[in-house]
């Protein structure tokens, strides 16, 4: 659809004046498409990567639209005021876009601009992760689990950890502080994230068995690195510079022009 809209504009604005040096790539009755006019529909970058099949497809579209435009002339549809206004509007639009493109052609964004933006807006580029404050009891023997679970029920989790846990943290009641996904065994992490606060559950690992519960959570925010967000910032800075260039261009043109609006 976009290609057809572009071609409609080309057909409406195409000049039929040819010179001897011009290469004709297509012709419909007395309307000719020159090589230069053909290339003008693409940027230099797009033209370089355009395949033969894509060029042929474009020309076929041009032929079809030219046939339709010529028939509109025969039926005098193109003489209607409404259509003439649309043609005029299309011409203005094409010229305006060409001017903007020429102004943006040499616009660049330096590494310093991107890094300065990152430094100022660093707080906007953060990643967050959840941590759980954990209490646990460890044993290497599966047969010992029943004894530990029974002691928890009859006393407290802390007391069971002090009496029966087989790791140093047990002596302080099994409190091991906050755990994050990066520094926690996969089985333990999956169990913690599926638990309700203050509830406990047994987890098997390659070291042995843990009875785990969490009693607090927190969210940690860390800044993303410059390299992680460089491309995203590049897009933002380019967009901002384009908007500023456009606004300044309009302001400049308004200042040197006479504008009257009657509605």
What's the quick description here?
This protein is α+β, with helices and mostly antiparallel strands. It is built from 10 helices and 6 strands.
Description:
The protein is of the alpha+beta class. It has two domains: 2-89, no CATH class; 124-223, Chitinase A, domain 3, CATH 3.10.50.40. Helix content is 52%, strand content 18%. The protein contains ten helices and six strands. The protein has helices at residues 2-13, 35-39, 44-49, 52-74, 81-104, 111-120, 145-154, 157-164, 186-194, 226-255; strands at 24-28, 31-34, 126-139, 175-179, 200-204, 209-223. The strands form two sheets. The chain has a four-stranded antiparallel sheet. A hairpin with a 2-residue loop joins strand 1 (24-28) and strand 2. Helix 1 packs across helix 4 (52-74), helix 6 packs across helix 10 (226-255) and helix 7 crosses helix 8 (157-164). The chain starts with a helix and ends in an 8-residue tail after the last helix.
Draw up the topology in text:
Layout: H1 2-13, E1 24-28, E2 31-34, H2 35-39, H3 44-49, H4 52-74, H5 81-104, H6 111-120, E3 126-139, H7 145-154, H8 157-164, E4 175-179, H9 186-194, E5 200-204, E6 209-223, H10 226-255
Antiparallel strand pairs: 1-2, 3-4, 3-6, 5-6
Helix pairs in contact: 1-4, 6-10, 7-8
